[in-house]
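Request from the bench team (R.T.):
"We need a structural guess for the complex before ordering more zinc ion. Sequence and SMILES attached. Just send the tokens back."

Command: build protein-zinc ion structure.
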Amino acid sequence: MTKARFTSHVRNILRNNDGFYFSVSIINPAKRCFQFLNNYSYHYQLRMFPVNLFQESKQRSMSVNAATLQRHLGTYDEGHPGPLVILIGAMHGNELAGVKAIDLVMKMLQVEHVTKPDFLFKGRLIAFSGNLHAAREGMRFIDRDLNRLWNYEHLEKLRSGKISPTCAEDHELLELSEIIEQEIKTYTGNQIVLLDLHTTSAGGGIFVVPAEKDSSRVLALGLGAPVVDGLLQNLSNTCLQYFSTHFVEKNLDAVSFESGQHDDPASVYVAIAAIINLLRSVGCVEDHDVESRHDVILKKHSAGLPCYSTLVEKHSILPEDQFVMHPGYHNFQKVSRGEVLATDINGPITSPEDLMILMPLYQSKGNDGFFLIRPDERKGYFEEAD
Ligand SMILES: [Zn+2]
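Reply to R.T.: structure attached below.
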């Protein structure tokens, strides 16, 4: 109870799994007070902080659940020229950390003026949820992976009525693509950024995946988390590929961000940090308006991980393969040449070289068993945690 200090400027308070509370803010501690809270009782907090904001943010964070999830998660636009930033959460229905993070960031932005009248947001932030049907069922997808359906020809046929939707995700694709493209078409500025928020079934590290263009790689590096390049070359019809390829004239960059394990509460505030850093990178918010804690959070979760890696191999699977990942692997774990990583109907599956493993599959649904990456030694590693 006594170790935390506080100020009346703390706006958003979350409860983590341990029953502790912590606050999140985009404000700069050098300009206004910001304190990290821990071991604070619910009762005590209600007396010490703006009750209405606390209750509202608590209700809002609780309101983000699969049953009530909406397609449009929020818009923030003060009418000043600037980039169009499009956020997507729950592209996979069992990954809700992104939509929770989006909900809280929208709330944080809405109250920023309460304590900082000169806060300025340039551009437009708009957010959507991806696979609503799967989210309601608590599944990655219903029939097909929504993040493997973004094919231009397929979409055109669906839109023109030449083919009818054949799976639940065709309906999601039609609705989501329509609403995002409407935003892109009506935007008159000169920079569009799309951030697709995900989590992984294994823990062990966060990372950014850029679209296959240099400007998106630069954007990914600016987030302050490990970058894994080349993943998209081995995937087909992802949302990132679709938007970065078909809206070139709109100067659209796209990155996806993996904020941790599906059910880890930390994945929510890691995703918040990534969103805020992105808003800073593209100039929606000023550097001096951004709380340095967001960098600290990302650094902590990137500690010891390679700054930049490239894909060496993707292990695709089919249901009939009877693929079983060996237990205990996590993102960025080192694997040795010849090490047995998994088994399937044909026997053991081994690593071809000394590499690192990424996204080992520990859930029933998925097309990819695991990815193997090679760290770029010249680009170094994030500092180890103290
Ligand atoms: Zn995902």
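Two things stood out. Confidence is low (pLDDT under 50) at residues 1-62. Residues 91-92, 95, 198 surround zinc ion (CB under 6 Å).
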